[in-house]
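Fill in residues.
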Protein backbone atom coordinates (compact mmCIF):
# COMPACT_ATOMS: atom_id res chain seq x y z
CA UNK A 1 0.00 0.00 0.00
CA UNK A 2 2.90 2.37 0.82
CA UNK A 3 6.38 2.05 -0.67
CA UNK A 4 9.37 4.21 0.26
CA UNK A 5 12.58 3.71 -1.68
CA UNK A 6 15.87 5.37 -0.68
CA UNK A 7 14.09 8.38 0.81
CA UNK A 8 16.26 11.19 2.14
CA UNK A 9 15.01 14.45 3.64
CA UNK A 10 17.44 17.31 4.18
CA UNK A 11 16.69 20.60 5.90
CA UNK A 12 18.95 23.66 5.82
CA UNK A 13 18.93 25.67 9.03
CA UNK A 14 21.35 28.51 9.70
CA UNK A 15 23.75 27.29 7.03
CA UNK A 16 23.76 23.79 8.55
CA UNK A 17 22.54 20.69 6.69
CA UNK A 18 20.26 18.49 8.78
CA UNK A 19 19.59 15.01 7.39
CA UNK A 20 16.24 14.19 9.02
CA UNK A 21 15.86 10.98 6.98
CA UNK A 22 18.81 9.14 5.49
CA UNK A 23 18.21 6.67 2.64
CA UNK A 24 15.07 5.09 4.17
CA UNK A 25 13.23 2.24 2.42
CA UNK A 26 10.00 0.87 3.85
CA UNK A 27 6.89 -1.09 2.79
CA UNK A 28 3.52 -0.93 4.56
CA UNK A 29 0.91 -3.50 3.57
CA UNK A 30 -2.82 -2.90 3.62
CA UNK A 31 -4.40 -3.85 6.95
CA UNK A 32 -1.19 -3.61 8.98
CA UNK A 33 -0.98 -2.08 12.47
CA UNK A 34 2.49 -0.55 12.79
CA UNK A 35 4.28 1.60 15.33
CA UNK A 36 7.13 3.91 14.41
CA UNK A 37 9.24 4.47 17.51
CA UNK A 38 12.23 6.65 18.22
CA UNK A 39 13.47 9.41 20.55
CA UNK A 40 12.91 13.09 19.94
CA UNK A 41 14.82 14.22 16.86
CA UNK A 42 15.17 10.70 15.47
CA UNK A 43 13.22 11.47 12.27
CA UNK A 44 9.98 9.67 13.11
CA UNK A 45 7.77 12.75 12.68
CA UNK A 46 9.49 13.61 9.40
CA UNK A 47 8.84 10.05 8.26
CA UNK A 48 5.15 10.38 9.15
CA UNK A 49 4.89 13.70 7.33
CA UNK A 50 6.30 12.14 4.18
CA UNK A 51 4.17 9.00 4.50
CA UNK A 52 1.12 11.21 5.03
CA UNK A 53 1.86 13.49 2.06
CA UNK A 54 2.39 16.49 4.34
CA UNK A 55 5.96 16.82 3.03
CA UNK A 56 8.00 15.58 0.08
CA UNK A 57 11.45 13.93 0.14
CA UNK A 58 14.66 15.62 -0.97
CA UNK A 59 15.46 12.43 -2.89
CA UNK A 60 13.99 8.97 -3.30
CA UNK A 61 10.48 7.83 -4.21
CA UNK A 62 7.21 7.48 -2.32
CA UNK A 63 4.27 5.50 -3.68
CA UNK A 64 0.90 5.58 -1.90
CA UNK A 65 -1.90 3.36 -3.19
CA UNK A 66 -0.19 3.23 -6.59
CA UNK A 67 0.42 7.01 -6.86
CA UNK A 68 3.96 8.42 -7.04
CA UNK A 69 3.75 11.17 -4.44
CA UNK A 70 6.89 13.10 -5.32
CA UNK A 71 5.46 13.80 -8.80
CA UNK A 72 2.11 15.10 -7.53
CA UNK A 73 1.13 18.79 -7.55
CA UNK A 74 0.10 20.56 -4.30
CA UNK A 75 -3.55 20.26 -5.36
CA UNK A 76 -3.17 16.54 -6.04
CA UNK A 77 -1.45 16.05 -2.67
CA UNK A 78 -4.31 17.85 -0.91
CA UNK A 79 -6.81 15.57 -2.65
CA UNK A 80 -4.82 12.46 -1.71
CA UNK A 81 -4.67 13.54 1.95
CA UNK A 82 -8.39 14.25 2.00
CA UNK A 83 -9.52 11.06 0.25
CA UNK A 84 -7.00 8.40 1.28
CA UNK A 85 -5.48 9.46 4.63
CA UNK A 86 -6.78 10.14 8.13
CA UNK A 87 -4.69 11.99 10.73
CA UNK A 88 -4.87 11.87 14.52
CA UNK A 89 -2.61 14.15 16.56
CA UNK A 90 -1.47 14.44 20.18
CA UNK A 91 -3.28 17.73 20.79
CA UNK A 92 -6.48 16.74 18.94
CA UNK A 93 -6.56 19.84 16.64
CA UNK A 94 -10.30 20.35 17.08
CA UNK A 95 -11.61 23.83 16.24
CA UNK A 96 -12.87 25.35 19.52
CA UNK A 97 -15.70 27.41 18.00
CA UNK A 98 -17.28 24.36 16.31
CA UNK A 99 -19.15 21.58 18.06
CA UNK A 100 -18.04 17.95 17.75
CA UNK A 101 -20.36 17.18 14.84
CA UNK A 102 -19.14 20.22 12.89
CA UNK A 103 -15.50 19.31 13.55
CA UNK A 104 -16.08 15.80 12.22
CA UNK A 105 -17.86 17.16 9.14
CA UNK A 106 -14.94 19.40 8.14
CA UNK A 107 -13.04 16.94 5.89
CA UNK A 108 -16.25 16.28 3.96
CA UNK A 109 -16.82 19.99 3.38
CA UNK A 110 -13.43 20.11 1.64
CA UNK A 111 -14.51 17.06 -0.39
CA UNK A 112 -17.75 18.73 -1.50
CA UNK A 113 -20.06 16.21 0.21
CA UNK A 114 -23.69 17.48 0.44
CA UNK A 115 -24.88 18.63 3.87
CA UNK A 116 -27.33 15.78 4.51
CA UNK A 117 -24.72 13.15 3.63
CA UNK A 118 -22.11 14.95 5.76
CA UNK A 119 -24.43 14.78 8.76
CA UNK A 120 -25.18 11.09 8.22
CA UNK A 121 -21.54 10.08 7.85
CA UNK A 122 -20.35 12.24 10.73
CA UNK A 123 -22.93 10.76 13.09
CA UNK A 124 -21.97 7.25 11.95
CA UNK A 125 -18.29 7.98 12.67
CA UNK A 126 -19.14 9.40 16.11
CA UNK A 127 -21.26 6.34 16.84
CA UNK A 128 -18.30 4.12 15.90
CA UNK A 129 -16.11 5.78 18.56
CA UNK A 130 -18.83 6.05 21.21
CA UNK A 131 -19.28 9.83 20.89
CA UNK A 132 -22.70 10.22 19.27
CA UNK A 133 -24.15 11.54 22.53
CA UNK A 134 -21.55 14.35 22.55
CA UNK A 135 -22.19 15.56 18.99
CA UNK A 136 -23.45 19.01 20.04
CA UNK A 137 -20.74 19.63 22.66
CA UNK A 138 -17.83 21.97 22.01
CA UNK A 139 -14.28 20.67 22.54
CA UNK A 140 -13.92 22.67 25.77
CA UNK A 141 -16.81 20.67 27.23
CA UNK A 142 -15.05 17.33 26.66
CA UNK A 143 -12.38 15.38 28.51
CA UNK A 144 -9.06 14.68 26.78
CA UNK A 145 -10.12 11.14 25.92
CA UNK A 146 -13.43 12.37 24.47
CA UNK A 147 -11.60 14.97 22.36
CA UNK A 148 -9.29 12.28 21.01
CA UNK A 149 -12.28 10.07 20.16
CA UNK A 150 -13.80 12.99 18.27
CA UNK A 151 -10.50 13.48 16.43
CA UNK A 152 -10.47 9.78 15.49
CA UNK A 153 -14.04 10.08 14.20
CA UNK A 154 -12.92 13.01 12.04
CA UNK A 155 -10.03 10.89 10.72
CA UNK A 156 -12.47 8.08 9.81
CA UNK A 157 -15.22 10.09 8.18
CA UNK A 158 -13.88 10.00 4.61
CA UNK A 159 -13.20 6.25 4.89
CA UNK A 160 -9.42 6.63 4.41
CA UNK A 161 -7.17 3.80 3.27
CA UNK A 162 -4.67 4.53 6.06
CA UNK A 163 -4.66 6.36 9.41
CA UNK A 164 -1.56 8.08 10.81
CA UNK A 165 -1.61 8.75 14.56
CA UNK A 166 1.17 11.00 15.90
CA UNK A 167 1.60 10.48 19.68
CA UNK A 168 -2.19 10.04 20.04
CA UNK A 169 -1.98 9.14 23.75
CA UNK A 170 0.78 11.60 24.67
CA UNK A 171 -1.64 14.14 26.17
CA UNK A 172 -3.76 11.56 28.04
CA UNK A 173 -3.53 9.75 31.36
CA UNK A 174 -2.58 6.06 31.34
CA UNK A 175 -6.11 4.66 31.61
CA UNK A 176 -7.53 6.94 28.92
CA UNK A 177 -4.54 6.26 26.69
CA UNK A 178 -5.17 2.51 26.94
CA UNK A 179 -8.80 3.08 25.95
CA UNK A 180 -7.67 4.98 22.84
CA UNK A 181 -5.18 2.23 21.97
CA UNK A 182 -7.98 -0.32 22.28
CA UNK A 183 -10.02 1.75 19.83
CA UNK A 184 -7.13 1.63 17.34
CA UNK A 185 -6.94 -2.15 17.81
CA UNK A 186 -10.64 -2.41 17.01
CA UNK A 187 -10.28 -0.24 13.92
CA UNK A 188 -7.38 -2.39 12.74
CA UNK A 189 -9.43 -5.56 13.33
CA UNK A 190 -12.01 -4.07 10.93
CA UNK A 191 -9.29 -3.86 8.25
CA UNK A 192 -7.98 -0.32 8.74
CA UNK A 193 -4.29 0.30 8.17
CA UNK A 194 -2.87 2.10 11.21
CA UNK A 195 0.54 3.74 11.60
CA UNK A 196 1.17 4.85 15.19
CA UNK A 197 4.08 7.22 15.86
CA UNK A 198 5.39 7.20 19.44
CA UNK A 199 8.46 7.58 21.64
CA UNK A 200 7.04 5.16 24.24
CA UNK A 201 8.19 1.49 24.01
CA UNK A 202 5.16 0.32 26.04
CA UNK A 203 2.79 1.85 23.50
CA UNK A 204 4.81 0.51 20.56
CA UNK A 205 4.65 -2.97 22.11
CA UNK A 206 0.89 -3.21 21.44
CA UNK A 207 1.38 -3.24 17.66
CA UNK A 208 2.16 -6.43 15.71
CA UNK A 209 4.99 -4.67 13.84
CA UNK A 210 7.42 -2.11 15.20
CA UNK A 211 9.77 0.12 13.19
CA UNK A 212 12.55 1.80 15.14
CA UNK A 213 14.18 4.91 13.73
CA UNK A 214 17.31 6.65 14.98
CA UNK A 215 19.36 9.45 13.42
CA UNK A 216 17.15 9.32 10.35
CA UNK A 217 17.74 5.63 9.70
CA UNK A 218 15.54 2.57 10.25
CA UNK A 219 17.24 0.20 12.65
CA UNK A 220 17.63 -3.45 11.56
CA UNK A 221 15.61 -6.06 13.41
CA UNK A 222 17.58 -7.98 16.05
CA UNK A 223 18.50 -11.53 15.08
CA UNK A 224 16.55 -13.58 17.63
CA UNK A 225 18.57 -16.71 16.79
CA UNK A 226 21.79 -14.98 17.80
CA UNK A 227 20.14 -13.70 20.98
CA UNK A 228 19.17 -17.29 21.81
CA UNK A 229 22.73 -18.49 21.30
CA UNK A 230 24.07 -15.80 23.61
CA UNK A 231 21.57 -16.81 26.29
CA UNK A 232 22.60 -20.46 26.00
CA UNK A 233 26.26 -19.56 26.42
Amino acid sequence: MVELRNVTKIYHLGGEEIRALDNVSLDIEEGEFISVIGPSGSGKSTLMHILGCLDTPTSGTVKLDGIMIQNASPRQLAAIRNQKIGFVFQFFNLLPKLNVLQNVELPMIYSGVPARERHRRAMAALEAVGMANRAKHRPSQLSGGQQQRAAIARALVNNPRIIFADEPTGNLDTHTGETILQLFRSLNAEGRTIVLVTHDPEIAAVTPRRIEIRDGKIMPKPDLRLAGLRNES
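Residues 163 and 184 are 10 Å apart (CA to CA).
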